[in-house]
Design brief:
Lipocalin, mainly beta, 58% strand, 133 residues, 8-stranded antiparallel beta barrel
Length: 133
């Protein structure tokens, strides 16, 4: 029940947010990131490089190009934009990265760890990456 409530709160916050179309370059997203884990929902099921036998490196450049490599093979390269989302009441702020592919992910950075969160049909995925440089 707690997991369902948690997921409901997350998705309500997504839909209760308005986008401020200002690009925020101070987010610290630019750089090279190494995949640590991806977890479903509240972290009940997680995948890691060891469990999937893969390595994933992401690169966000200052000229707004996103590139991802799996096992040293280029998987995708696309443009991106960073948005600051503010809740309707102005109390909560989050940052989102929108890719030219149409995907959008909420992100946060704590020290040298990037967390990307996306959700589809009441299932959320959170991926964590460690900054390489």
């Amino acid at each position: 029940m707690k997991k369902i409530l948690f997921l409901l709160v997350i998705f309500v916050s997504f839909y209760g947010c308005k986008k401020d179309n200002t690009i925020d370059n101070s987010s610290g997203l630019v750089g090279k990131w190494n995949w640590i884990s991806t977890c479903v929902g509240g972290g009940t099921v997680c995948m890691t490089p060891a469990s999937t036998n893969t390595s994933t490196i992401m690169l966000f450049t200052s000229n707004a190009v996103f590139t991802i490599f799996k096992n040293d093979t280029l998987i995708e390269s696309t443009s991106f934009q960073i948005y600051k989302s503010v809740s309707e009441d102005g109390m909560n702020t989050s940052y989102a990265v929108k890719f030219d592919t149409g995907d959008t992910e909420i992100f946060s950075i704590a020290h040298d760890t990037l967390s990307l969160m996306n959700g589809v049909d009441f299932v959320s995925f959170t991926s964590r990456y460690k900054r390489i440089n």
